[in-house]
Every structure is written in structure tokens, then in C-alpha cells.
Amino acid sequence: MSVIRRNRIAIGLAAGLAVVLGLGVWSATGSNTNSKPVAQTETDLGVLGDYGDVGTAPVLQEPAQAPETPAQQAAPETPAPAAQPPAAQPPAAAPVSSLKLVGKQVDKMGMVVQDGDGRTMYRFDKDTPKPETKSNCNDKCAVTWPPFLSDTVPQLEGIDPSIVSLITRADGKKQVAIDKWPVYSYSLDPGPGKWKGQGVGGTWFVIQPNGKRNVECLPPGVTAPAA
Q: Would you tell me how many other CB atoms lie within 10 Å of the CB of residue 109?
């Protein structure tokens, strides 16, 4: 082999070796430059990248919540008790009158009606007992024969309460009536237990507990009217 040929072979081998070495160096350098540690980047986490790339949003799971215990569960609402109606009140008692009428028997006269002071009570034959009881003794008549007035039925003794009532007089005041006959006293009676008004005018008579006229002890000249 000639010297020239051997030189050419040596030069070719040297050149090839240089290329191989150059490729090795370039590979090592490129590998070190482009390699990155394995880690999640912002793009991997779905955050907008430097170049506008939008990654896929990761699915984040919420931590599991523990089931509610009986104490944490809302207790059922207890319905409010229904309102109770107010207790019925007993009816108010009727006011008790301080006035009193007493049916009794007295000597000579027999059955009479007296007030609480013992004064004799009378009835007037010109009053209207039916159909609606009406007193016809007003004005001056009522001065001489004061009506027995009361806003409530008076206390009764010896008189049937079922026949006792109140009537309204012309002046609006209430007067007691026995069996529909208005009751009066006589202003000229000298005192309790007297009956000076018996038979006056042939129309005024002592009233009995049953409402009828008493015709005992009539003054001279007065005749008992027909029943």
C-alpha cells in the first residue's frame, strides 16, 4: 500500500472519529439543556399559560362530610297549643234592693202590705192594670200618694214574687206593682201601722199581699166597690 493511500485512510478515520465525538458532545449538551425535573406546571393545573394555552381543569373532590348525628338533626317543631276559649263567667247576680215589702196580718184591718218602715201600702182603682199596667196618679196626685219606686224588685216577705213586677211611669221612673196594681203610700198617714188613706174618694184602698183591695175598716159613708 502506498504512502498516499495510508494517509488518506488515516485522515478519513480521524474525520469520522471527530464527527462521532462531535455528535456525542452535542447530544449530551442538548439533553442537559432541554431536560426538566418531573413536576406539575401551571399548564398541567389548568391555569392559563404564557402563550394562551388553556389546560384542562382538574377535578377537585370536596372532602367527604361526616353524616349528621341525631343531635345535629333538626328536631321536629312542636305545634303550639291551641288557644283555649276563656272560661265562662257566671252571670252577674241581680243587685239586691235595700227596699222591702212585707205581707202580713194586723189587728182589725187583716191582711195588708207594709214597707220596710211599717208604713201601709195602697192601690188606686183608677189605675189601668190591663193589658199593660199603667199608673194614672201623676203630678199633684203623686205628691199626696207617693208611688213606691224601685229600680229592682224589692226584698219580699209574705208576698209571692211571681206576681211582683216593675212598671214604667210617665216620668220614666220605675214603680213596684203587685198583681199588676201599682203600689203607693199615703203622705197623710200619721205613722207606721196606720191606714188613714183607707177608702179615700172611694178609689183608694189598702192593698193585700195578693194585689186585691182590702175593704176592712172603711170610713163612714164609703161603700165597698163590687169585686
A: 17
142 three-class SS: helix
Helices (H) and strands (E) in the chain, counts: 2, 9
Q: Which residues lie below 8 Å from residue 50, measured CB to CB, with a gap of 6+?
A: none
The whole-angstrom separation of Cα 57 and Cα 117 is 113
- The separation between the first and the last C-alpha atoms of the chain, rounded to the nearest angstrom, is 195
Please name the residues in contact with 206: beta carbons below 8 A apart, sequence gap of 6 or more: 109, 112, 113, 120, 121, 122, 195, 197, 198, 213, 214, 216
Query: Distance between CA 208 and CA 128 in Å, rounded?
Result: 18
What pLDDT, in 10s, does the model give residues 178-198? Answer: 999 999 999 999 999 999 999
Which pTM does this prediction carry?
0.59
In 3D space, the residue among 97, 107, 110, 75 whose CA is nearest the CA of residue 176 turns out to be 97
Cα gap 160→180, rounded to integer Å: 13
Q: Which residues pair with 122 in a beta bridge?
A: 184, 206
Express each pLDDT in 17-66 by its tens digit.
Answer: 666 566 555 555 554 444 444 444 443 434 334 434 444 444 555 555 65
